[in-house]
Structure formats: structure tokens, C-alpha cells
Amino acid sequence: MRYMRRVSIQTKILGLTLSLSFLIILLLTSYFTYMHGKQIAEDRGRLALELSKSVSMMPTIIEAFESDNPSEMIQPVVEKIRQKTGAEFIVVGNKEGIRYSHPQESEIGKKMVGGDSKRAIEKGEYYISEARGSLGLSMRGKSPIFNQNGDIIGVVSVGFLVEDIEKQIFKNISKELVISLSALIASIIGSFLLAKSIRKDTLGLEPYEIVNLYKVKNAVLHSVQEGILSIDKNGIITSMNQRAKSLLGIKGSVRHLKVDGLFPSNYLYDVLNSGEPQFDKELTWKNKTIIVSCTPIKDEKSVNGVVAVFREKTEIEQMINTLSEMKTYSEELRAQTHEFTNKLYVLSGLLQLGEYDEAIEMIQGETTELEFQNQIVFEQIRDTKVQVILLGKIGKASEKKILFEIAPETYIDKLPDHIRLSQLTLILGNIIDNAFEAVSDIEKPVIKFFATDIGEDIIFEISDNGKGIADEDMPSLFERGFSSKEGEDLRGYGLSNADKSVKELGGIIEVQNGKENTVFTVYLPKQLQGGEKQ
Q1: C-alpha closest to that of 94 among 158, 153, 49
Q2: Domains in the chain: how many in total?
Q3: 373 and 309 assigned to the same domain
Q4: What was the pLDDT predicted at 448?
Q5: In angstroms, rounded to a whole number, what is the distance separating the alpha carbons of residues 422 and 286?
Q6: Are residues 394 and 247 in the same domain?
């Protein structure tokens, strides 16, 4: 007892620290080595599964199955992905298990081995398996490939060799042993400080490392262009980067606040309750269209939160619409140029033949018709956007030998600012183009256009003397992908896009399907919802 009393508190702590440190480090090293090895294997399995899912959903892969030689399209794509991700192999096969891709090209065309593709091909399941293939024992991710009809047409297998995983585990064990030895030496040197550090630091990290990790986390969160938001299981916000605040129009701190009212919370709660991730969901929030992907935060038994990554679609959508508009205008100007070129050739021929009276009559007829149309377009239609669209369609109708009549009583003033050119192009352009197609087989095709802004709504009316719309097609007229024309994959989107743009503006489209003509009437309110006048 006297000896113990003579020992300083520093020596007591040193003795206790040495014994405790050795025991704790030994136990922790063993535990973390086991858990780290298990985590590496699970991570490789999850990575293999996610890679297989991504490959199975690639439009290029799905379309390749319809070609005569699928492997010619599939092999370069998956090999590039394999090299970028470090996977040992990415094999794509059909329902019979015949390979369309393989790291060894000599194996393409042969049957897949391992016997673990049955669940994906027959039941459409996504899963992780371990089996021995042509390259050895591997951890595999299996995903079925579905076509546009939802039928299983093949399977994707992504794998990492178990041998490589074990090498990585042993490599990490060596690092952990070095760290453990360093910690033991540090415990001797810094007795009291290290003893206190061991009690607080369960992850084996030094305090400065924790600070650095926190700084790196914040730097990453605030440097990415996507908005990042995380909540706990109670819907309380745990983190949100600056980009997310900017996209959502939020100022100040939001930590410990409920996510309701700040973000489309129903979507987050769906992921929180189901525990299943959801990707690339298109949502509308505060007049912005955002693309959201949500991943649950899980432990072994439950879901503890959700991380949402989102980005704005509006700017990309506007750029695409603008490019589409430019392409449409270019095509319509080309049509107009082509038509006037043909008329100039005819006029030149008449002059060369000395048919001056007929030439003058042709010029006067063209001038009269042009003056009448221009009077309506430029004097009775005061909105530049509508003028541009109509001029292009008039030229296109002239080239197609279609009589395009603008009603003399047509009159509209400048449209409200909230009606964008991209939306108006989708609405009028697609409906008029649909009328062009409807009269393509008519002997004397006629399309009539009328517009007015009298009252609370702006009204556009487009009629044609085509064959009309079949009664059974009416309910599906505005469905995306629906078309009464068979055998043309790119059809079925025009009226759907027009209907979507009309609904975005709070309007409606009415269709009157008569025996002599078909009439599309568009009603666009002059005011946005909520009464704000533009």
C-alpha cells in the first residue's frame, strides 16, 4: 500500500493505460478486422448489384437486343464501364444464358456458367450471389433486363473475384495492425492523454482526423451542384447544403426543423417507410421542376433516415425546348424558301416564254393572298410569338399544297408574360402539325385558324377537314406514346406535349370530332392560379 501511495498519479495512469490499451486495442483490432472484412465483401456485392441494375436499365443495352448482332453494340459499352469501375467482369446474356459480352471476347456466344441466373431470368429478381464461373469464384450482382413491354429479355451479371476481395481484406488487416501498434506506442508516450482519448474515440480516430473529416464533409456538401438534404426517422432535417437552400428558396439554418413545408415531404416519407431507394423522380415544387433521388439510411434492423439528392430540371428543359424551337423554325423556313423558289422558277419560265399576262396575274394573285394573310398576322395579331409560329406554318402549308386560312375576325393582343414561347410552340405547333397529318390524304385539304382574347381566356381554335378521329381513340388522344398511326415509333408525343403545356398554364383543350371537320380549341387563362396577373 505504501508503494502504491508513493506512485504518482501519472504512473498509475500509465500502468492502467498500458494494460487497458493493450487489451482494448487487441479486441478492437480483431473486431474491426472482422467487421471491415465483412463490410468490404458486402460493399463489393452491393456495388456489383448496383452496377448490374444500371447496365440492365441502359436504353442502349435494351435496344441492342433488337439488333441482329447484340454483342456488337453491348460489348464496347460494358467493357468501358467495367474498366472504369474495376469490376472483374460484366456479362450480358439473353434468356437462354448466351453471352453477349465478356472480358474475354472468345467467351462471347457461349453459355453463362455458375447456375445462379435463374432467379433473374425467370422471376425478374435483383440479388447478390456467390458462384464459380469461367474466371473463378466471384461475388456477383444479378439483374434482369426488361424491354419496353415489361418482358424479361436477358440478364446482367457483374462480378468481383473472391480472391481479389480476400487480398483487399488482408491488405487492410496489415494497415490496421500498423495503426494498432502505433496506438500502443502512443499510449506509452501520452499516457493520460491517450487514456482519455481511448475512452472517447470508439472509431480509433484522432481528434484532428475527426475535425478534418467534418470539414471535408462540409466542403463536399457545399461544392456539389446538386442539392443534398438528409432527415432522420422523425422527419427532422439533419443536414442541407447551400445548393439545396438555393433551389428551395430557403434562407438561414434549418437544422432540427421538420422537413414538411420546406420540401415535397411525402416523397421522403414514402422512402422512409418502405426502406427502398427511389431514383430520378420528377417533382414540381414552387414553380420549379426538380429531379430527386432518395436513398434510405439503414442499420441492420431499421431505417434511421433518408438522404435526398436533387437538381433543377427547368433550365435543362428550357434549353431543350429552345433547341427544338430553333430546329422547327429552321425546317419551316426551309419549306417556305423551297415554295417561293418553285414559284420564282414558274415566274421565270412564264417571262421567258413571253406569257406576260399570266406572269402578272400570278404575281397579283400571290400579292393579294400574301397581303390578306399579312394584314391579319401583323395587324390583328399583336403577339410576336404567335406571329412567328403562324408564318412558319403558312410556309409549310404552302409547300404541302394545303389551304391554311386565318379567320378574318382573329384578333389577339400581346400575350401575358407567363406564357413562354417554348410552351406556345408545343401547343400551337403540335396541334397544327397534327392537322397537317389529318388532311394529308384529302383531295382539297383545308386548315382554319382562329384566335381571340376577348374575356378572361385566350382562345385558339384549329380545325381541319380530315377524316376525323375514331371514337375508340378519343379517350387516349392525349396519352403519351399513343398514336393511331401504326409502325412509327416516334409518334404519339405531339398532342401529349401540347396537353402537358396547356395544363402547366392552367388551361384546357377541347376536341370536337365532327363528320366534316375536327376542331381543337385551347383555352389559356390570362391570369396565373392565385389571381396574379402577368
Answers
A1: 153
A2: 3
A3: no
A4: 92
A5: 20
A6: no
Shared domain check, 157 and 65: yes
Read off φ and ψ for residue 479, nearest 5 degrees.
-75, 140
pLDDT at 445: 92
* Alpha helices (runs of H) in 86-206, residue ranges in sequence order: 118-123, 162-189, 191-200
Q: Same domain, yes or no, for 393 and 507?
A: yes
Residues 6+ apart with CB under 8 A from 112: 91, 93, 97, 98, 99, 133, 155, 157
Cβ-proximal residues to 295 (8 Å cutoff; 6+ apart), any chain: 271, 277, 306, 307, 309
3 state SS of 31:
helix
**pLDDT class of 353 with cuts at 50, 70, 90:** confident
User: DSSP 3-state assignment of 13?
Assistant: helix
Q: CA nearest 340: which of 385, 389, 396, 384?
A: 396
CB atoms within 10 A of CB 351: 12
What was the pLDDT predicted at 490? 40
pLDDT for res 534: 41
415 within a domain of the structure (yes/no): yes
**Which of 276, 291, 314 lies at the terminal end of a domain, its last residue?**
314
Distance CA 438, CA 431 (A): 10
Tell me the torsion sign for CA atoms 103, 106, 109, 113. Answer: negative
pLDDT (tens digit, 9 = 90+) per residue, 267-313?
A: 888 888 888 888 878 777 777 778 888 899 887 778 889 988 888 76
What's the pTM?
Answer: 0.39
Each residue of 19-53: pLDDT tens digit? 777 777 777 777 777 777 777 778 888 888 898 88
Residue among 195, 205, 64, 87 at smallest CA distance from 138:
87
Residue 460: give its domain's CATH number.
3.30.565.10
Asked if 283 and 398 sit in the same domain, the reply is no
Q: What is the CA radius of gyration of the chain?
A: 34
Q: Cell digits for 299?
A: 442499420
Residue 263 structural domain: 227-314
Identity of residue 68: D
Q: Residue 351 belongs to what H/E stretch? A: helix 314-352
Backbone angles phi, psi at 147, to 5 degrees: -85, -175
Do the beta carbons of residue 58 and residue 44 sit within 8 Å? Answer: no
Which region, left, alpha or beta, applies to residue 455 given φ > 0 means left and ψ of -120 to 50 means alpha?
A: left
Is the same domain home to 376 and 520? yes
446-452 vs 403-406, strand pairing mode: parallel
Contact of 518 with 502, CB cutoff 8 Å: no
Query: Among residues 168, 203, 236, which one ends one of the domains?
Result: 168
* pLDDT tens per residue, range 246-258: 888 888 888 788 8
- Average pLDDT of the chain to the nearest whole number: 79
pLDDT at 8: 46
Band (120; pLDDT cuts 50, 70, 90): confident
- Reported as a single tens digit per residue, the pLDDT across 300-315 is 778 889 988 888 765 5
